[in-house]
Amino acid sequence: MSDTVHPNFWQPLKAPDENRGLALDFGPGQPLILDSGKQLSPFRIAYMTYGTLNAAKSNAVLVCHALSGDQFVASTHPVTGKPGWWSYAVGPGKALDTNRFFVICANVVGGCMGTTGPGEIDPATGEPYGLGFPIVTIRDMVRAQTMLIDALGIDQLLCVLGGSMGGMQVLQWAASYPERVYSAMPLATAARHSAQNIAFHEVGRQAIMADPDWRGGDYTLAGVRPAKGLAVARMAAHITYLSEAALQRKFGRELADRDALSFGFDADFQIESYLRHQGMTFVDRFDANSYLYITRAMDYFDLAADYGGVLAEAFRGTKARFCLVSFTSDWLFPTSENKRIAHALNAAGANVSFVEIKSDRGHDAFLLDEPELFDTMRGFIGAAAAVKGVA
Amino acid sequence: MSRELLTAKPASKLRPDLAAIADMIPPGARVLDIGCGDGSLLEYLVRAKGVDGRGLELIQQNVNQCVARGLSVVQGDADADLNEYPSGIFDIVILSQTIQATEKPSYVLRELLRIGKRVIVSFPNFGHWKVRLSLLVNGRMPVTKTLGHSWHDTPNIHLCTITDFLTLAQETGAKIEKALTLDDGNQRTRVMHPNSWGPNIFAEGAIFLLAKQ
Fold first, then answer.
1. Which of A310, A346, A351 to mutate to test the interface with B (most CBs of B within 10 A)?
2. Is A372 within 8 Å of chain B by CB?
3. Cα(A79)–Cα(A285) distance, integer angstroms
4. CA of A179: how far to CAs of A239, A317, B88, in Å?
5. In this predicted model, what pLDDT tens digit does every residue of B165-211 receive, in sequence order?
6. Is A371 at the interface with chain B, CB within 8 A?
7. What is the predicted pLDDT for the residue at A18?
8. Distance separating alpha carbons of residues A125 and B154, to the nearest angstrom
């Protein structure tokens, strides 16, 4: 499959097709109004759905993807040919059961898998946006998703869920559109991006911008790509997704395909060749400028700031049911940040559960085979469906 | 459909002390169960009595089990996390067999009375004659059916007698609306007169329904 699709998937999605999922175009009359005050028009949302929307349109579940994720939650990725990024959790009979629920996932605005982003052609210039693309925020991403949900004729989502940046979108959904969210499941996330996390993102962005092939963001016009910079950004970020214990367990000081140290700067250690591989494969499916924009959106996220600095105010009067999940070894979005959200929800008198799952797999745990997470998902979404009267 | 959601335990299947607590709770009330364990009581209250129920539980596996059962439970500590709850948002706050394991029972009880309009507290009675006799005869910290831990590994760091609890309730400005004794390892409950001397000797435990004065 990957042979037939151009690896630069962020090139404009001309029309929905089977491999690339679905897409919805919003013409000049329906601009996406951004927090920056700018507008995006025309713009496209690329998305995937799984399962069937029932007649009452009451069984829709929105999955929000993370920084490097996309709409291919539970189906083969058109570029890499790998299974969907959440195939462990989403599918027929799985924790998020597509036999029962209508699961939607849209590529975020600013992304590179079909939704309008910096790799798309700016209609004003006829050239790729590059850095001419407006800065987008988590709230902009959610606002774009509401336009998709409107177009699908869905008033209220049974559940909105997602991890990491996906969790930020879940929180934004619950705060901005409380009447449209019946239940919300933010996983391994935070209500604000911490200084440490902004710092890591800045390292990644500087790596991209230091690559001579980045060309001030206009690399597509020059026919090159800042692959090395993006790969380094991914390598640095990937370390933050794991835990020290998991790295030690998986790699230790094992050597990569050799019996002795090379006394050079080759990838002597398995961890080095693993990270290089992660970096190299990432550039095949991700756009460097999208990486800049999406990391920026996460950095700008501070939900309480929009509510006078009091996080509980963001959820005042909410009727939604919440379930927060953190993982013990996640140091990027640690339990303390997730608990802070739970406390704010408690203070707002909201219906909230909070589960911390023991795992040594770091932040990545929310994407992996974690049976305790799946039991929690099944129980929480099942209870929401039962109370809402979804068969 | 998760099978747990379809089966509400009938009251008779609840442990009798929990069933007695359930009987004190009006249908549809807003309830917080502190130290809710695996959620048996909370699940019964939600399913059978239609209460708007929440839980706070220290042990993570218990919390996960509760959420998988479809209950709303937060991992947290009664000693540290009660201050996050707004005043008066619950009709009833339950502290079942937990107060003796808290670090600051007096603070916890005050917080419960702030958060809830009414408070139910149950605890083992350290004034029971077997406990008294065991200490007198053996000269060692008593280990009984209801107090099954040896002194060095017990979670029960603040055991009290019924009389002790009555003093604490008075100090925190709580009014006793109902009082029950617990016997036979929490298998039997009886109404008690809190001011009589008998229960403090003959009851293995007690349940109090308290309100703010």
1. A346
2. yes
3. 6
4. 38, 10, 25
5. 999 999 999 999 999 999 887 778 889 887 788 999 999 999 999 99
6. no
7. 57
8. 74
CATH number for the domain spanning B28: value is: 3.40.50.150
Q: Where do the domains of chain A lie? A: 22-192+302-388, 199-294
Q: Evaluate whether A22-192+302-388 and A199-294 have a shared fold.
A: no
For residue A180, pLDDT over 80 is answered with yes
The listed CATH number (1.10.10.10, 1.10.1740.110, 3.30.70.330, 3.30.360.10) that belongs to domain A199-294: 1.10.1740.110
Peptide bond into B199 cis (omega under 30): no
**CA A7 – CA A236 distance, rounded (Å):** 23
CA distance B130 to B126: 9
Q: What is the pTM of this model?
A: 0.89
For A386, the closest of B1, B64, B72 (CB atoms) is B1
The ipTM value here is: 0.79
Separation between Cα atoms, residue A3 and residue A165, nearest integer Å: 30
Is B53 in a helix, a strand, or coil? strand
Mutation target vs A (from B42, B54, B75; most A CBs, 10 A cutoff): B75
* The pairing of beta strand B174-183 with beta strand B188-191: antiparallel
A379 → closest Cβ in B68, B81, B89? B68
A254 Cα distance to chain centroid: 32
In whole angstroms, give the CA distance from residue B177 to residue B92: 13
CATH 3.40.50.1820 given to domain A22-192+302-388: yes
